[in-house]
Amino acid sequence: MIKKPWAGRFKKGTHKVAEKFSASIDFDQRLYKEDIEGSIAHATMLANEGIILKKEADKIIKGLKQIENEIKAGKFPFSVEFEDIHLNIEKRLIEKIGDVGGKIHTARSRNDQIALDMRLYLRKEIVEITTLIEIISGRLVELSEKNIDAMIPLYTHVQRGQPILLSHQLMALYEMLKRDRARYIDCLKRVNVMPLGAGAGAGTTFPINRKLVAKLLDFPGVTDNSIDTVSDRDFIIEFISTSATLMMHLSRISEEFVLWSTKEFDFVDLGDEFTTGSSIMPQKRNPDMAELIRGKTGRVYGNQVTILTIMKGLPFSYNRDMQEDKEPMFDTVDTVKACLEVLSEMLNSIKFKHDNMKKALNEGFITATDVADYLSRKGLPFRQSHEVTGNIVSYAEEKGLELMDLDISEFRKFSKLFEEDLYNFITLDGSIESRKSHGGTAKKNVVKMIKLAKKEIASW
Q1: Are residue 294 and residue 369 in the same domain, yes or no?
Q2: What percent of the residues of the chain are helix, what percent strand, and what percent coil, each to the nearest 5?
Q3: Within this chain, do residues 199 and 331 fall inside the same structural domain, yes or no?
Q4: Is 268 left (phi over 0), alpha (psi -120 to 50) or beta?
């Protein structure tokens, strides 16, 4: 039987069933780099403060680097009996360099050690995620510029509403992702705080230098309360919450592409590389990658509920329930990165069908709002303008005509305010270019949006 670090207190060993049930090494072994990085910084500090000898620290650091190479090479003997990544590495270190290896655990606990590992891990992953968001944001801006003159219906309630520029809609997606990026960067401020030195929760009697460890690990500051330090998982909760919002946005983007790729819309070709066929219907081209992004959103929502439920009833400070925080964190990282990677590549292959988009604008009385606005500019209160325009739409619908097909004399049956200049406002170009309010769909506005976005991306 392998002797546990706490064996002195117990007369019997851990039952095999309990040992297997409580082990986390199957999933927390992916924190090995962070665990070793933190241990090297800790050993350096212990030697610097005279808590251990420099030659002991050198031996420990050399052994830790050898262990890292073993893990990278797939030669490390991970053991369930040693429960987690911390004990597996520490026991292997003692095997390699002798009892001096046990000094690495001086002035620390697994409680503050795991908090450090997860913070080191998350800050790296947040940087990678924000980089992927930046790449997608850049591609949306490129697509907007490339399709600057293409028109598309603006849909509300999935019904054609008004004509807009496709580039305007693509820039709306950019705005969503820009907010997501900002949330991750803000989250990073609370992730990037150094927890080591809190011990089990009360601090330590050793004269440690926490600020030195923070400097070695490139943390801008240290946590201020040892109890909160080992109790806190807010940084994981915030990360998963931020990720859930991002996934909601990715799901909405995906849904748009799913709709647009149907024959009913036929606005976009997602490319063979990001669609699949049917095993029974040979004509099918299914937008599976977009659908999977939409589906995987639920995983991240589930992870958010999981971590909140784990933490909701816990007393201070550390509780073993908190071992369950890592799997939802890891799964969220993996899911978000996979979705961002596939969407990024899909945007490279996407092709918009401008003619089909414009054809959709020629049906459905899509410039009816412009007729109502025209009457309002002539002095008629908007509610009356709305009613008059609704009567005109009903009239045109009965005759099987669009608004542009009506003669001015027909318009004047409903209001004497109509004049020939009406046709300048109810064309597709006229409708789009008249929406010059800040953030509106007029081309001049969208060009400004693109120009500003390029500056923002360059500053990232």
Answers
A1: no
A2: 65, 5, 30
A3: yes
A4: beta
In three-state secondary structure terms, 268 is: strand
Gap between the Cα atoms of 130 and 338, Å rounded: 13
Is residue 131 included in any domain, yes or no?
yes
* Total tally of structural domains belonging to the chain: 3
Q: What CATH number does residue 313 fall under?
A: 1.20.200.10
Separation between Cα atoms, residue 339 and residue 334, nearest integer Å: 9
On whether both 39 and 182 belong to a single domain, the answer is no
CA gap 378, 297 in Å, rounded: 49
Report the run of H or E that residue 311 belongs to, with start and end.
Answer: helix 288-311
Cβ within 8 Å of residue 445, ≥6 positions away? 168, 435, 436, 438, 439
Per the CB < 8 A criterion, the answer to whether 293 and 344 are in contact is no
Quick one: 374 and 426 in the same domain?
yes
Q: Provide the residue range defining the domain that includes 390.
A: 360-459
My answer on whether 123 and 184 are in the same domain is yes
pTM score, two decimals? 0.91
Question: How confident is the prediction along the chain (460 residues), in pLDDT tens digits per residue?
Answer: 455 564 556 556 666 676 565 667 777 889 999 999 999 999 999 999 999 999 999 999 999 999 999 999 999 998 888 888 889 899 999 999 999 999 999 999 999 999 999 999 999 999 999 999 999 999 999 999 999 999 999 999 999 889 999 999 999 999 999 999 999 999 999 999 999 999 999 999 999 999 999 999 999 999 999 999 999 999 999 999 999 999 999 999 999 999 999 999 999 999 888 877 777 876 778 889 999 999 999 999 999 999 999 999 999 988 888 888 899 999 999 999 999 999 999 999 999 999 999 999 988 888 889 889 889 999 999 999 999 999 999 998 998 988 888 999 888 999 999 899 999 888 899 999 999 999 999 999 999 999 999 999 999 9
Residues with catalytic function: 157, 278
Looking at the structure, tell me whether residues 390 and 437 fall in a common domain: yes
CA distance 335 to 411: 55
Co-location of 71 and 122 in the same domain = no
